[in-house]
Fold Fe2OG dioxygenase domain-containing protein.
Amino acid sequence: MAPTLAEPFQDSSALREFVINQGNGVKGLSELGLTALPKQYIQPLEERTCMTNIVLQESIPIIDMSNWEDPQVTKSICDAASKWGFFQIVNHDVPVEVLENVKDATYRFFGLPAEVKNKYSKEHSCSNNVRFGTSFTPQAEKALEWKDYLSLFYVSEEEASILWPSVCRDQVLDYMNKSKVVIKQLLQILMKGLNVNEIDETKESLLMGSMRTNLNYYPKCPNPELTVGVGRHSDVSTLTILLQDEIGGLFVRENEGDNWIHVPPIKGSLVINVGDALQILSNGRYRSVEHRVVANGSNNRISVPIFVNPRPTDMIGPLSELIASGEKPIYKQVLYSDYVKHFFRKAHDGKKTVGFAEL
């Protein structure tokens, strides 16, 4: 049952019951027509987006992939991964209709009744590989984030056909499969930039042995300036391939200092970012960079990232080719599943996770 609008959710247990236990998420909160943000979502001042720290004239690189083996293109990609940690690609090999279909599927899933979505929650899902949730790590966060998500860890087409929600399954699988061509192109270029010229089966599985796709939903928010869609963090992936809609709201931290750069939506483009795993594997040559998502007071927003990861059982550390060429390692070897567990057991905290692997 929906609570009354007078002083809504002063009691945190009532909020948890409505948002988490009943599966309404922040989408359900948004649709109540609240005039004020529940206090549980009010971020400390230092975590809110201050518009004076936004650098309007800067942009992450936009790279045309139509001739991806051209030396200028490969140099642009390696430079972007080293300097920015983020870039957008256009004229890539993922068809626009595949991108549009997965956006439509995202709206379809989040349009389902709460009790249907709730079947995929941590408490009710029949597999850890399918997870509907809200915020990031609610049990560890002092302030909650204004986002709902469905997380789909890929094991096999067979498992997906049984476990994934039917309203989005085929579209997500198509998006993942069609993206693999681009992922392999990017990894080939980035490895060559490290003088690793051969990606054998072992290396390929270390770089992209597992994949997870999230469908993210950021509903319209009262008092968006008081909260965040996603707090400051870097990804734990090798690479992240992000499809965003036309609303915007993703910000990337500039190299130095506390300035943030907006990543403008470009129809048909994909946003690529280096994750912590690639920073560690490249011995710091490629950089994972902090990013965040702002809440929006007038529009719902969706995004669909594919997280390209090592396998949970892989040890990650600087690639042996780099150490053999005389580089001093700045990271130790860590079990990837331990690294990921460390990330998920705490609230978003910028780039602190990578310290887990530092020597």
About this structure: The CA atoms of residues 217 and 302 lie 5 Å apart. The two ends are 52 Å apart (CA to CA). Residues 1-6 have pLDDT under 50 and may be disordered. The first helix runs from residue 12 to 21.
